[in-house]
Write a structure and sequence with these properties.
With about 280 residues, the chain is of the alpha/beta class. The chain has helices at about 25-35, 55-70, 85-95, 110-115, 135-140, 155-160, 170-185, 200-205, 215-230, 250-260; strands at about 15-20, 40-45, 75-80, 100-105, 120-125, 145-150, 190, 210-215, 240-245, 270. It is globular. Bound molecules: D-glutamic acid.
Length: about 280
């Protein structure tokens, strides 16, 4: 059977937000603050977490398939609350679904370069985020007058996914990536993976007082409001609501999400019906 999908944004539709796991909650909680009257739908593709070590074209296939599923229920905008998926797929997503606004993550080198006094900026991200055009384009546009030190952080997003911020091994793991940057004279650290703001306090403590942390999450929420305003798509009133689905395990996800959102969260497992090209059926 062929299902015809009509992508028409309207103000009553939901805002869909997605990430590989918990990370996008750093964006979701800002969206809840900025847009309290909106219906938010969060999808965590935790069956495929981590995205960071995967080839970009695999993450791109996931992204297109997820957007296709998300848009089967009316969505007026999609927030790609994942730097890795944005690096892999933002352009193709916009080409594939031209009628829907996509808000994506771009490493916040611009404000970091503007505010750094030492002229040395560190960027923390997954391995995949540093590959591909998006990061290169950010460098070309914003990194003229500063030295940008790239620090891929293999394993950090998974560790944040599996453990609470106060886990005894969290600080040593963060130090492995942050301390070499501080030793190189970096005075500004860009959090370019949405998982990292969930442990911002640990990162700030390891980095020390002289280092500013750039967390783009509030700016993404403001950008989302702006996009909706420009499209005449803001909800007209009433109470907002948030629904959370995951493609994999839901119980531990719900417990961790409750910690990060500061309220009781119940995520429901909603495996997609699509079969990833390189993986088993979900
Ligand atoms: N939260 C994701 C990001 O912003 C990726 C984490 C992962 O799955 O590797 O890059």
């Amino acid at each position: 059977m062929n299902i015809e999908i009509i992508h028409t944004p309207n103000p009553d539709a939901r805002i869909s937000v997605y990430d590989s796991g918990l990370g996008g909650l750093s964006i979701l909680r800002e969206l809840e603050q900025e847009l309290p009257g909106e219906r938010l739908y969060y999808f965590a593709d935790n069956a495929h977490l981590p995205y960071g070590p995967r080839p970009l074209d695999e993450v791109r296939r996931f992204a297109i398939a997820i957007a296709d599923q998300l848009l089967r229920l009316p969505s007026k905008a999609v927030v790609v609350a994942c730097n890795t998926a944005s690096a892999a797929a933002l352009k193709p997503l916009r080409q594939t679904f031209p009628d829907i606004p996509f808000i994506g993550m771009e490493p916040a080198v611009k404000p970091a370069a503007r505010d750094s006094r030492s002229g040395k900026v560190g960027v923390l991200a997954t391995q995949a985020t540093f590959q591909g055009e998006l990061f290169e384009s950010v460098m070309e546009r914003f990194a003229h007058d500063v030295e940008v030190v790239r620090m891929p952080c293999p394993g950090l997003a998974e560790f944040i996914e599996m453990h609470p911020p106060d886990h005894p091994a969290m600080e040593p793991m963060v130090a492995k990536y942050v301390t070499p940057l501080v030793e190189r004279g970096v005075d500004t650290l860009v959090l370019a993976c949405t998982h990292y703001p969930l442990i911002k306090d640990v990162i700030a403590q390891v980095a020390g007082d002289g280092v500013a942390i750039v967390d783009p999450s509030p700016a993404i929420a403001r950008r989302t409001r702006q996009v909706l305003e420009e499209g005449g798509l803001l909800a007209s009133g009433g109470a907002g609501e948030t629904t959370i689905n995951v493609s994999g395990e839901a119980e531990r996800f719900s417990r961790s999400a409750s910690v990060h959102l500061g309220r009781e969260v119940r995520a429901v497992s909603a495996p997609f019906l699509w079969v990833p090209v390189d993986g088993p059926a979900l």
